[in-house]
Amino acid sequence: MRNVLDNELILLGGKGGVGKTTCAAATAIALLPKKTLLVSTDPAHSIGDCLGQEIGDEITRVEQGENLYALEISADKTLQEFKQKYSSEMRRLLETSAGIEHLTRGEREKLLSLPVPGADEVMGLRRLLDLMEEGNFEKYVLDTAPTGHTLRLLSMPDVFDEWNNVLYKLRDKHRFHERAFTKPDRADQFLASLKTSTTELRKLLRSQKTEFVVVTAAERLVIEETKDLVNQLRSFGICVRHLVINKLFPDLNTDFSRIRRDQEQKLVEEIRTSFYELQIMEVYLQPSEPRGTDNLRQFASLLYS
Ligand SMILES: Nc1ncnc2c1ncn2[C@@H]1O[C@H](COP(=O)(O)OP(=O)(O)O)[C@@H](O)[C@H]1O
Ligand SMILES: [Mg+2]
Predict the structure, then answer these.
(1) Which of 222, 224, 253, 290 has its CB 3.0 to 4.6 Å from that of 299, i.e. a possible disulfide?
(2) Which residues line ligand 1 (CB under 6 A)?
(3) What's 35's domain CATH number?
């Protein structure tokens, strides 16, 4: 079985609170000294908190981790920059699409400022893709938002594509009615580049060098959500080979811990049966929160032992 750390892009995801960020940061540390970028697209960023250093929307070198860099992508900010950069193309698009070409200037402005479903998420992923194309790092680790949000994010290239197809059709219709221009213009180029973007995103997520590591806990509700997540990831064609069961109760030689562990063991068995084809990685609940590079290094050795 291919090792998690052999991948170029490793995504970590799961239910809120299971330990996605901790596992992502520990994975990034396990990849050192390879030059690694740890990225978060969770709007509730917590990489900085986990590493014990402020990280923001700019690539920041992690002080205690040689060759480790981190970035908390603000999808919203990325989208605003995109809109600014392509505002003239977007206007042109509105002026030359059937049904909306006769809108007044004010109406057009209003339309442009409406949120396009999923656009901010696509932009966040797009930014990661751009960074990977620039190729300044050898490895990329992505700390994702909780399950629902992540699934939405991963389905966004498809939703975005449909939106794109509708615009293409409206333009064709306009052309037909106006018996107008036949040569592609900059609005066409703009649409084509969006299309390429979503195609590339899909390719990246389905690549052989990409793997989604699912983080879970031995709790009933978490398991149900994990099943959904794994199935959906597979339906998107994303590779899932490893499952982390985090925060398992340690053996403390007390009745309390015996009872907890017995209950957990049943759930762990269920997980192993449900996901028989996955490699399971188990991590015990630690006496303190694994924060800061030293603790994370230790956590990484438990995770990848
Ligand atoms: N194995 C563990 N032992 C002890 N605390 C843990 C463990 N894994 C994660 N934590 C703690 O649990 C909390 C949630 O973890 P986090 O990685 O932020 O989860 P998520 O990103 O999935 O919301 C954090 O306070 C983290 O330090
Ligand atoms: Mg998190």
Answers:
(1) 290
(2) 16-22, 46, 246-247, 283, 285-286, 289-291
(3) 3.40.50.300
How many angstroms separate the CA atoms of 204 and 189, rounded? 22
Residue 274 inside a domain? The answer is yes
Taking the CA of residue 22 as reference, the ligand 1 atom at the shortest distance is 17
Predicted TM-score (pTM) of this structure:
0.89
Give the distance (Å) from ligand 2 centre to CA of residue 25.
10
Contact in structure between 10 and 140 (CB atoms under 8 Å): yes
| Ligand 2 mean position, distance from CA 19 (Å) | 7
- Closest ligand to Cα 287: 1
Q: How confident is the prediction along the chain (305 residues), in pLDDT tens digits per residue?
A: 569 999 999 999 999 999 999 999 999 999 999 999 999 987 788 999 999 999 999 999 999 888 999 999 987 788 888 888 888 887 887 777 777 777 788 887 777 777 766 666 677 788 899 999 999 999 999 998 877 777 777 777 777 777 778 877 887 777 777 666 567 777 788 888 878 888 888 899 899 999 999 999 999 999 999 999 999 999 989 999 999 999 999 999 999 999 999 999 999 999 999 999 999 999 999 999 999 999 999 999 999 98
Domain that holds residue 135: 4-75+120-156+208-303
Q: Which ligand is nearest to the CA of 22?
A: 1
Q: Is residue 146 part of a domain?
A: yes
